[in-house]
Amino acid sequence: MLGLLTLAMVTFALVAPWRLPAVVALVAMGAFAFGAVPALQMRIMRYAGAAPTLASGSNIAAFNVGNATGAWIGGLTISAGLGYVSTLWAGAAMAGAALLTAVVASRADRLPKCTAELDTAKAHAGATA
User: Fold this and answer.
1) Where are the transmembrane segments (predicted)?
2) What are the residue ranges of helices labelled H in the chain?
3) The domain containing residue 119 runs over which residues?
4) Dihedral sign, CA of 46, 47, 50, 56?
5) Whole-angstrom Cα distance, residue 115 to residue 49?
6) Burial class of residue 108, CB neighbours in 10 A (0-12, 13-18, 19+)
7) Does the pLDDT value for residue 10 go beyond 90?
8) Measured by CB atoms within 10 angstroms of the end CB, which terminus of the chain is less buried, N or C?
9) Based on the structure, what is the number of domains in the chain?
10) Interhelix angle 2-15/86-109, nearest 10 degrees
11) Does the pLDDT of residue 3 top 70, yes or no?
């Protein structure tokens, strides 16, 4: 979803001068942004362990920090005289950075966790052999 959100924001920036394509891109941007929430929520809940309420609250807090940061960066781009469309480019960059972070985190999940876990797995494998 984050890749589609990035693509929708870039498309929106490119078609912003034209009303109908801009509205279509706006709807797509909203749909992809909204669609990313359940996947991100499920990811954090997978690691919540015995504290699902804390994890869920932290996730919502992170969304709020992201909203505030996006508004701040958008304000900076407009204040710098880059125009209103610059907010879309900044948002696309933020969504792209989020996608990169998600890819790195996903790949990190596939790596062995720690030596103790490997030792336990080896001991278990040896005991069953």
Assistant:
1) 23-40, 61-82, 88-105
2) 2-15, 19-46, 52-79, 86-109, 115-128
3) 2-128
4) negative
5) 21
6) exposed
7) yes
8) C
9) 1
10) 170
11) yes
Q: For 39-62, how does the pLDDT look when each residue is reduced to its tens digit (9 = 90+)?
A: 889 988 988 889 999 999 999 999
Look at residue 117 in the predicted model and tell me its pLDDT: 59
- Output the pLDDT for position 94: 94
How far is Cα 72 from Cα 78, in angstroms, rounded to an integer?
Answer: 10
3-state secondary structure of 47: coil
Q: Which amino acid is at 12?
A: F
Nearest in space to 87 (alpha carbons), one of 17, 15, 7, 12: 12
Tens-digit pLDDT profile for residues 84-119: 999 999 999 999 999 999 899 888 888 776 655 556
Nearest alpha carbon to residue 25 among 72, 69, 91: 91
d(CA 2, CA 92): 10
Are residues 12 and 22 in contact, defined by beta-carbon separation less than 8 angstroms?
yes
Structure tokens at 71: 């508004």
Q: What is the DSSP letter of 53?
A: H
